[in-house]
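Project outcomes to date are best conveyed with an example. Our students and postdoctoral researchers have been running inverse folding experiments weekly, and each run begins with a structure described purely in tokens. The record below, which covers 245 residues, was selected by the lab manager from last quarter's runs and is presented without edits.
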């Protein structure tokens, strides 16, 4: 979720065959996070299995299949602070969250357990493979990509997550009227995100030209500690929200 969240990929070029939606980061899993894997992992961690997901079974509770609900995919949730908040303020939606960074997964599992959040499921796996092999066309009601790694240096821009091939994959998996919401605190990346989403023919910007193409921050997305710190330093934050036509 933060700008050092392990997400990346090219911006306007085709994915190399071995592209990943992340880069492995070093990090130590705390005792509490490790305990969360043990206690809450069996219920809230899903296994990567190629083939269309059965959402009713993925979000089952107490052995009972879940009732139909909007499904929101999140790519790269960092330490899960915003993810937990959004799931609590939107209890009637199901949140399918992809993250490979083990401390982050442990941190979100800990939040899930401590806050009794029932509508999150985690796939500790590359999001690109999940999209390609587990998510059917027109199966999602929303996609969240918050503060992906901006790869500040020009020579590294090609590693950014938001690029045309990925957005095409995501757009195809949105239901008509469903949305994709990206947020970044790096203005050059915001410009690129806006350009990439604008170029996808089945997506339409929800913001007006008067807004410069950028959306007003939706109420469900909280201000994280990282974001608040940046805003106090005068850094901007840009939200981009498009819907499938």
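After processing, the design step wrote out the following sequence:
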């Amino acid at each position: 979720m933060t700008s050092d969240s392990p997400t990346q990929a090219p911006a306007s070029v085709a994915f190399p065959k071995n592209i990943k939606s992340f880069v492995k980061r070093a990090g130590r899993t705390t005792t509490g996070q490790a305990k969360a894997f043990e206690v809450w992992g069996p219920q809230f961690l899903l296994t990567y299995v190629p083939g269309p997901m059965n959402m009713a079974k993925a979000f089952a509770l107490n052995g009972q299949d879940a009732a139909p609900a909007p499904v929101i995919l999140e790519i790269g949730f960092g330490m899960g602070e915003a993810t937990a908040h959004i799931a609590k303020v939107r209890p009637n939606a199901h949140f399918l969250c992809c993250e490979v960074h083990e401390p982050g997964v442990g941190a979100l599992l800990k939040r899930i357990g401590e806050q009794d959040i029932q509508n999150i499921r985690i796939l500790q796996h590359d999001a690109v493979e999940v999209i390609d092999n587990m998510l059917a066309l027109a199966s999602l009601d929303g996609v969240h990509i918050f503060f992906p790694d901006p790869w500040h240096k020009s020579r590294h821009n090609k590693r950014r997550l938001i690029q045309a091939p990925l957005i095409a994959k995501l757009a195809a998996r949105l239901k008509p009227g469903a949305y994709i919401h990206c947020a970044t605190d790096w203005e050059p990346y915001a410009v690129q995100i806006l350009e990439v989403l604008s170029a996808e023919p089945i997506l339409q910007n929800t913001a007006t030209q008067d807004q410069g193409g950028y959306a007003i921050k939706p109420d469900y997305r909280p201000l994280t500690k990282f974001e608040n710190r940046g805003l106090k330093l005068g850094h901007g934050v840009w939200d981009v929200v498009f819907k499938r036509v």
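The beta strands are 45-46, 71-75, 94-98, 120-123, 140-146, 174-184, 203-205, 238-244. Confidence is low (pLDDT under 50) at residues 1-26. The training component of this project remains on track.
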